Input
Amino acid sequence: MPIASTRIENEPLPPFDPVESDSIDWVRFAASGSLLAGGLLYLLGRRRAGLATAVTGATIALLDQQDLIRRFWRELPGYMDQVQQLLDDMENLVDDIGDRRRRLHQVLHKAESPVASPVEP
Output
């Protein structure tokens, strides 16, 4: 009795590609290795070498993720608008706090000011 197969009899098998099935993602391996080595060099006091190695790893990673970079670049104006709105809101909040502080200061100084006493001869 034959074992049931999920493949349809007339459907051709996908081509066998040994490079695709057995390969390691060398780009990601190189990028992560460079970033790790850069971090270790930086921690060991070799700051310039560590920074250069980490920048190299980041560049390799970015070259591998070109679609992600393109999408981010298209969405960047929206992010900038959100940051600008946040900064405007913070500026308004700081101005409001400053106005309240000034009003409170005026109220407290009016309460503390001595009543003018008549001048004694």
Summary: Residues 104 and 110 are 10 Å apart (CA to CA). The mean pLDDT is 82. Residues 23-64 form one domain. Helices lie at 18-22, 26-43, 47-64, 66-112.
